[in-house]
Amino acid sequence: MSLAQELGEFAAEVDPPGRVRADVPTRILDVLGNSLAAYVEKDADAAPAALRAMRRWGGVPESTVLGSGDRLPAPSAAFVNGVLAHSLDFDDTHLPSVLHPSASVVPAALAAAEAGAPGDLIAAIAAGIEVTNRLGMAGCDPETGANLYFERGQHATSICGTIGAAVAVARLYELDAGKIADAVGIAVSMGAGVLEANRTGGSVKRSHCGWAAHGGVVAATLAAEGLTGPPTVLEGRFGFFTAHTGRFTPEAVTAGLGERWELLRTVFKPYPSNHFTHAGIDCALALRAAGLDPDDVESAELGVAGPVLRTIAEPAAEKARPRSGYQAKFSGPYTLAVALTGGGGLGVGLDDFAGLDPRRLELASRVRMYADEAATAAFPRAFAGVLRVRTRSGAVVEHRVDSSRGGPGHPLSAAEVTAKFTGNAQRAISVDAVAALSDAVRRLGFGGPVSDVFPI
């Protein structure tokens, strides 16, 4: 069988084990919390623009847009909800593929389920996330750890997420293996995403998971109606991997499929910023907790994995002085300054990126970033880093982390993930509504109706 056919067989037949079924509702909660917080974000532009555009197009009111109560056609609702899910850069991350699977798959699946797709929602989301992760892994160079998508400026999250979303919705439609393979073949022509916004600004990256969720719903629907895709769409001469990576590791797609679940290696973010910044944040928080006064910082050197410098350190002038709170989330120097000066306890939260703080900009200008050998060796299986600070008195303090908080070896506890959801959701809805939503999502794991989740 071709790779698409193998994925079709997997998605059509898989009955996820208990541990996976128990994990999926937590993924849904995380997406919903992030999305609700994004809906009320003060400096947002992507999600309001997406919603206004979908309202202009109108259509059959099938599925709910989170926060607004709008009901739109399932592909349109999936688009807006996917934009919301990725807008805060707070969504879960799979390693070593370094992509965010749930922000595309969950909005697509919820929109299709609310519109009447009758299948097993938990199994569908599990299959979609698993496919997304494995396609991402296949694009990692096994010798160097380099992400071949990123090397070409491609956003693996949206490109692979379109296919994963299509798989999830096709499973919800209860399509057979052949038609799910067709959905994969169709979705490959719909996935897109370029990462230059990470470096020099623009809010289009926020829309990438929305486009993936939209494409997934459309691809699965077209497959259900009889459109077909090429069976060798992934590995073929003019297929997915040729187009996006140039080479790939086929066994990463199918080895142990349905037995070894990459979904369970998808970690939750503790901080609402690009994941590459988290090791630096951890180091800064540790030095702050040990008594470092940010006003006493003469200069700082932050060592991270070499491949991440292009995202959080270059161009140096842009990263030292980001132009918006959103762009600041992709700045190693600015997020370091946030961690050293943040309010509300020893942490970094959404309010820290509500705007740009002159004190933090000045502190960021004194941060130099470089490639650290140990962090580079750990990448992409962990985000490591080392921070060295010289104080005005001439003293030097240093802290190193081998894996960032929330990452492999240091996962967030169930209580921390619940607290994250609660804090995010309460920015948009009442305490009682948050509790009701949490209970409704928990019931999804036991076959509860998706209608209980909406409207939010």
UniProtKB/TrEMBL annotation:
Task: Give GO MF terms, alphabetically.
Answer: lyase activity
Pfam families on file: MmgE_PrpD_C, MmgE_PrpD_N
The chain positions of domain MmgE/PrpD N-terminal read 15-250
| InterPro entries the UniProt entry points to | MmgE/PrpD_sf (IPR036148), MmgE/PrpD_sf_1 (IPR042183), MmgE/PrpD_sf_2 (IPR042188), MmgE_PrpD (IPR005656), MmgE_PrpD_C (IPR045337), MmgE_PrpD_N (IPR045336)
Q: Which SUPFAM superfamilies match?
A: 2-methylcitrate dehydratase PrpD
Limits of the MmgE/PrpD C-terminal domain: 271-442
Matching entries from PANTHER family are given as: 2-METHYLCITRATE DEHYDRATASE, 2-METHYLCITRATE DEHYDRATASE-RELATED
The family assignment reads: Belongs to the PrpD family.
Protein name per Swiss-Prot or TrEMBL: 2-methylcitrate dehydratase PrpD
